[in-house]
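Hi X.,

You mentioned you wanted examples for the new student's onboarding notes, showing what a folding record looks like when two proteins sit in one file. Here is a clean example. The first protein comes first, with its sequence line followed by its structure tokens.
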Amino acid sequence: RSQPVLECRRFDQEVGHPRRLRGRVPDANTVRGMDLAARTEQLFSIFESQEFDGLESLLAPDVTMTQNGNPEHDKDGLMAFVQGIKNYGVSVKYSDERRSVGDGFVVEQHVVTLTRTDGKSASTDVCVVLRFDDDGLIKRLDEYVDSAVFGALIT
């Protein structure tokens, strides 16, 4: 993966939530010393490689995931979702990553390209919001994507 553009300012500062910043070091985008940008990079590397063995170690036991505000999935649902993409024989590639790291959360925008084994592919912009618990585990994943772009690939 290419190196994402990492915002220098805290996302909390950008949207005007100074209460969360009181008493914090401006660049301390960590939870218990865990670099949230690095954890996010690890997550998307796992999705891209489709080697899901390390995925559960990044997830809180009660993680929830939703796509476009649809019904939530628990950990088993999330695992089934990512495994389903692999089972369709579709590879995943991320590009043009832009990432903002805040107090216990990361917002990443990127372009995702799905490619079938016959070479047919489709790309679209995606926004993912990750929320982390106090142990640095992902407790919520919200993905916003024009999923209709991929309809013809996964039918």
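Then the second protein repeats the pattern, sequence line and then tokens:
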Amino acid sequence: FMTPELKKCVDNLLIQSVVLKKLLVELNDDIDAEDFSDSLLGHPQELRFVKQIRQFKSEEGEHWIYKLNTVIGIRFIAEDNIDKDPNDTTIDPILEIKSEFIAQYESACELTQDEINQFSEKHVYFHVWPYWREVIQSSCARLGISPLIIPPLRV
């Protein structure tokens, strides 16, 4: 279901760019790439949220610019950690890949905070997801492990 606020965003926001801002790729210290196997990937935890939304007028003053800092991550934890709170800092993941992208949009009209918040809940991921999938693939290749398969985004 698309609310009137969300429809306004979808109709007016034009994607301008998606840029990587931060990247964390970490394989557990106790595991070498040659010892890594898919059997270690049994307990994934996903992370997905918009960290920051910034808006301002373009230099020409004709358009509004919206920058959505979007964090997406996945980590795989050991079975003895699955009952812990995901925010527990004592969890030492087997593998963690986390990225922050800045998705920049342009709009001919100013959007309200509620409108842009609704857009950020799902729609920003349509634009960021292909970049996230590429980060996963290239990170796995650089680690020397078999690639993780991240399916296309479905909402």
